[in-house]
Amino acid sequence: MTEEKSRSHGRLGVRLTLKPRDLMEDAEVKGAFSVKVITLFPEAFPGTLGLSLTGKALDLGLWRLEAVGLRAFGEGKHRSVDDTPAGGGAGMVIRPDVMERALQAAGGRGPVIFLTPRGKPFTQAMARRLSQGEGMTLICGRFEGLDQRVIDHYGIEEVSMGDFVLTGGEIPAQALIDATVRLLPKVLGNADSAIEESFSDGLLEHPQYTRPAVWQGREVPAVLASGNHAEIAKWRAAQSLAVTEARRPDLFAAWKARERRPVKGPALRKAIRALVSGIAAGDATEAEDQARALAWIDSGVELARVRKPATPGVQLVSYFLPMDGEHLLLGAHRGSGLWLPPGGHVEPAEHPTDTVRRECREELKTIADFQAEDPVFLTWTQTLGAPETRHVDVSLWYLLRGNVRSLPDFDTSEFSEMRWFRAESLPPGAEPNLSRLMAKLRK
């Protein structure tokens, strides 16, 4: 019997050779997101993944796909991959020794995932997490499943695409790959698409409309043609909430629990005070700044900026620092000339953590992926510039998860460029307090 070959796709970083070979095994991709799929039906791939945006990204080498035929690693003359269940019962179970050989041959990067109805539900958050890694290896289930010993031995994640049963894992694998690959940098033509779509903020997407303005007597909502972007954003947010509450009460309840924050008056001030007092000071300077900030909050003065640039004279700021291991993302700030983390002033009646969410959308065109939703650092800083513009920034610093392999589609009116730096090699002109934060994190 002829040994079944793996089928690979994607052509970034092609290695030239004079030796003829199968075009399906054509390219070695360097640094691209790598997906290995172990399946009894490698001919099912790329399937629909070879079309539209994922297909174009595959051709451009933004990601790489290799389908590994399980049958090639089977036992005996007939390459058997399964056997009867221990203890009896219907159906067949994929053998652990066969799967081990396939996994060793695949040699993929990142987590190993087994598509099975008994797995944990696949979510947008999981797709986002997977997209921030180097790749993944998927196992397409068949028969009655996979021997538990190989799952335990390799720490394989079991993932389900929903409460239903299919004949195999190939269709779920394609759905999981599509949901993940579309979040890779440069795959979507418009970075805002990944922000505004369903589930990106835990809610279903608002209704969509296009031309003609009137169809079958039904009109496009007037607000969408108003040109007032603030009102359009409000309408879409309200519609998103209404649709989610009606169709997915579970998502709506989770959103309410997550977003339940005081929005005005004494309750908001109390919540901000709790954030500040909850920070464990890392050095004497931070302890002094924290005490000063608490006294400022307790004085009853306005905390948020109400008029640019210096009203009031002390203003609350939320910084957020995307990190990936020992790397951190900084931007060359046009106004200050410093390398700064993204962030911005807290708006009146806005919780500082929600400021991070808003600024992350505006400055990085992405969803904030918090390491923790409470700040880890506080600074009290006198700004520079003309006397009439000077003020004090009381800054709360948050940590986000980032991906050193990619740069966000940042706001070029705010930053001239963005780069990843190692924590121990901050650039000249870095925000002076960054070194103190890095020292605190290393403790």
Automatic annotation (TrEMBL):
The enzyme's E.C. designation: 2.1.1.228
GO BP of this protein: tRNA N1-guanine methylation
Residues annotated for S-adenosyl-L-methionine binding in this entry: G141, M161, G162, D163, F164, V165, L166
UniProt key word S-adenosyl-L-methionine: yes
InterPro entries given in the database record: Alpha/beta_knot_MTases, NUDIX_hydrolase-like_dom_sf, NUDIX_hydrolase_dom, tRNA_m1G_MeTrfase_C_sf, tRNA_m1G_MeTrfase_TrmD, tRNA_m1G_MTases_N, tRNA_MeTrfase_TRMD/TRM10
Localization, UniProt: Cytoplasm
Subunit architecture: Homodimer.
NCBIfam families the record matches: PRK00026.1, trmD
UniProt protein name: tRNA (guanine-N(1)-)-methyltransferase
Organism the protein comes from: Stagnihabitans tardus
